[in-house]
Write a structure and sequence with these properties.
This protein has 9 helices and 9 strands. The chain is an alpha/beta fold and 234 residues long. The structure holds adenosine-5-diphosphoribose. Adenosine-5-diphosphoribose binds next to helix 1 and helix 9.
């Protein structure tokens, strides 16, 4: 990427790979399982209808685990970039952990929901949540015992798509970090950004499914490559 001088508006997409070095499991590990489960068995509305207790317990464990992990060098570098970048900036994360938030990122959207949030199936209101859901607590807004994890499952519409599409259309640089590029619509953001004239960079441990779509693809640990890249921008 030669012409960084011309960059004013940046959109960054992150995936599970940015939290891997904090000790949060990625979805598509070498064994193809996510903490011992097939993704479809815990991350679909059908799975929740079939066995709500299993799904609630699974996300309760993930939510509890957040209290034991810390933001790493990637989260810190991206929070610094947000704080210091004078142009437009948007960090879109597919991650449901709160590590970007805790690192201090402000211009941040969680497109796949958040572990620390509960969605009420009765009143549709999202409430901040850091306890358990498997025990059927009442919704803070309406009192119904109808809370589910506020996670965007397969087949559901991601959050904030209009804002994300607008930012992609207006960006000069799109950077994808730590995502396998297996899940749409996020996997298609690179094509939207390119079509609108942006430069595109991927940083990932292995080549992702869409590596060939980027102007440049850097392979290695995000904890090393991302702080280096952020440093190079200033
Ligand atoms: N540095 C950089 N990349 C890494 C690192 C690391 N230290 N560790 C792992 N990776 C890469 C892996 O090589 C892999 O390509 O991160 C990627 C993680 O891919 P996935 O596990 O598929 O996670 P993600 O792309 O975020 O998944 C997308 O799938 O199930 C859904 O909704 C869920 O948001 C999730 C979506």
């Amino acid at each position: 990427m030669g012409q960084m001088d011309n960059i004013r508006n940046i959109v960054i997409l992150t995936g599970a790979g940015v939290s891997a070095e904090s000790g949060v499991a990625t979805f598509r590990g070498p064994d193809g399982l996510w903490e011992g489960h097939r993704v479809e068995d815990v991350a679909t509305p059908e799975a929740f209808m079939r066995d709500p207790h299993l799904v609630q317990k699974f996300y309760d464990e993930r939510r509890a685990k957040l209290k034991t992990v810390q933001p790493n060098a990637v989260h810190m570098a991206l929070a610094r970039l947000d704080a210091e970048w004078k142009g437009e900036f948007l960090l879109v994360t597919q991650n449901v952990d709160d590590l970007h938030d805790r690192a201090g990122s402000q211009r941040l959207l969680h497109m796949h929901g958040e572990l620390n949030s509960a969605l009420c199936l009765a009143c549709d209101i999202r409430s901040a949540w850091n306890g358990t859901l498997a025990d059927g607590p009442p919704c803070p807004a309406c009192g119904a015992q109808a809370l589910r994890p506020d996670i965007v499952w397969f087949g559901e519409m991601p959050y904030h798509m209009e804002r994300i599409e607008a930012a992609l259309a207006a960006c000069d640089l799109f950077v994808s970090i730590g995502t396998s590029g297996a899940v749409y619509p996020a996997a298609g953001f690179v094509q939207t950004a390119r079509a609108c004239g942006a430069q595109t960079l991927e940083i990932n441990l292995d080549p992702s499914e869409g590596s060939h779509l980027f102007d440049e693809s850097r392979q290695g640990e995000a904890g090393t490559l991302v702080p280096e890249w952020v440093e190079s921008l200033f």
